[in-house]
Task: structure prediction
Amino acid sequence: MVHPQNWPADLDYAGSRVVVVGSGATAVTLVPSMAERAEHVTMLQRSPTYIASVSSVDRLADRLRGRMPERLAYALVRAKNIGRSQLIYQFARRRPEAMKGILRKAAAQRLPANFAIDPHLTPTYEPWDQRLCAIPDGDLFSAIRRGKADIVTGRIDRVTPDGIDLVDGGHLDADVIVTATGLSLLYLGGMRLVVDGRDVDVSKTLAYKGMMLAGVPNLSMTIGYTNASWTLKADLVAHYVARLLRFMDRHGYSSVTPRADSVVTSGQLTPLIDLAAGYVRRSIRSLPKQGERTPWRLHQNYVRDFVLLRTGRVTDSVRFGFAGERTPPGLERPGDGERRVLLDRPGMASVEVEGRRIRYRVTGDGPAVLLLHGIGQSLDDWNEQHELLSPRHTVYSLDLPGFAYSERLPGRATLKRLAAVLPAFLDSVGVTHAIPVVGNSLGGAVAMQFAAEHPDRVSALVLVDSAGFGSEVTLALRLLTVPLLGELLARPRLGTARAAVRAVFADAKHATDARIARGFRLSQRQGHARTTLDIARELGTLRGITTLWRQALLSRIAAHDRPVLLVWGARDRILPFSHLAAARAALPQAQVAVFADAGHMPQIESAEEFASTLDRLLDAVGV
Result:
C-alpha cells in the first residue's frame, strides 16, 4: 500500500500488478509512468473525470525559435498559450455539451475500438466543475491501447491479500496498491494567525484580490487558477507584491491591511475556491470567503487579473500605517522634543487622495462613523471618542486637507474644496456607503457641505458647536481675516498657542501642556497656517461670520430628511451658545443635546456623556 505523498524511495514494482485508486491528476500521471515497468496497471475510479490529451510539443515555439529575438518569441508563445487555455475554459462553461462531444471524440480516436467510453470516461458533472485532467501526448490512452493499462469504474468492497474485491462482485489482482485518493488542503500551511493579540479565524475572513486577507496586515498568499496554469496567478501575485512594497517604501509605510466595508461583508459570501473537486469540498469550511465584486472576488480569468494586479491601484480598499520612528515622506520630521506625537496612536495612517496625502486614523470594528475637526485643529480633537466609540463602531477621523499633517490642495482652500475631498477619502479606505458624519466647529460646516453635495453618502449629521448658524465668533478668528494682520497673528508663538487652547475649554484643566505643545507645533506648519487664513477669510470678515454662505447651505440641509443632532457646550467662547437657538430654528426636526459644563469641544470635556449621546443617535438611525 503506497500513498503518493509518502512514496518509498526503494519501491520496486517492476513486473508487478498495480492498482492505482483514483481518477484525478495524480492517478492519470502515475498510470502511464508505472506502466513502463509494471506487468499491468489498473486505474480504479469511483467515478470518471474528464481527460484531455495535450501535446508536449509547441509547434509555434519551434517555428519561432531562432527566427526572432528570444524575448519576443517568448511573449508571443506565452500569449498564445494563455489565450488558448482561457478560450477552452470559456467554451467549456458556455457550451458544455459541445465540449463533452469534443473530449469524447478525441479520447475515442486514441483508445481501442472496444474501450467502453461509457462509463469510464463519461462524468456526471459538467466540464470544469472540477479540474480537467491533462495527459501529455495521450500517454494514458497509449498505455491502454498497448494493453499495459486499463480503467475500471467501481467501488471497493474490501482489500484482500491478493488484490481488491469490488462491490459489484469483481476482483482486481494487485501486488501494489497506490492510493491516489486526493489530498487535504492545509491553508497557509496550517499557520496560526494572530493580530493584536487576537486569533484570526481564517474561515471567517474575506480574501482581498485573491491574495491577501481582510484585517490581516502584511500577509500575502498565492492561490493559482483552477482552470489554467497555477503559475500564471503566482506570477501576477509576485509582481503585485513587488509593486505594493515599492509603493510602501516610497511613502514610508510599514504596514498594509485590506479593509472590507459593511456593504461587502453584508453581501453574499461564497467559498474562495469555487470548484466541486473532492479535495476542495473536504476543506471548504476552513477556507476564506469571497465577496460579490472586485477586489473581494477571485476571478478565474487571467486577463481580468492582469488588469487588476499589474495595472490596478494598490491603494484600493486597504489601510496603510506606520510603525516606530518612521515619518511619512512630505511630513516634516518633528524635533527631538516631539517624538512621534503625530503618528504614535493606534490606527494612525496616511492615504493619497487626489494627489495629496491625507493623515487619518481608524479604530474599532462595526458600522463606520466619520469625525471632522475644526479650523486650525487636527484629528487629535477626537482621540477620546476613538477610545469610547471603537467597541461598537469603526471610527474614522482625518486632518482635513491643509490642516495639521495633511497636504494642502493646490490653490486657495475653501469650504467646498475641503468637503469635496471626503468622497474620495472614504472610497480610498473602503467606505462606499452612507455613514453618519460628526463635525465640530468648522468640521460641522464641512459636514453640512458634504451632505449637501453628496446626500447619498451621509446617513446622519451630528453638528457639534458648529459653524454656520450665527455671525458671532471669537475675536481671534475675526482678526485673522484682516490682510497682513492675519499673517502676523498666524506666526508661531507659544503664548498664542496657549491662549487658543485655553479658549476652547470651559475648564482650564483640559488645556494641558501636551495640548498646548501640539497646538504650537501645528502653528509652525506653513500649510496649516495658510489653510487657516484661507478658510477664515472665505467664511467671515472682521465683523463676523458672513450670512450668504450660511443661508445657502442651511437651506439645502433643511430640505433633506436625514437625522440631525445639534450638540452645544453651554460655555462655548468660540461660537456662543446663542447659536443653538438659530440652529434649532433652521433645523426644527433636529434633536438637541446641551452640555452645561463644556466649552467649544464637548467631545473632550464631556467625553463619556458625548459618546453615550452619540451612540443613542446612531442606534436610533440604525447605525
Remarks:
- The chain has a mean pLDDT of 88.
- The chain has 22 helices and 27 strands.
- The chain has three domains: 4-179, 187-311, 322-620.
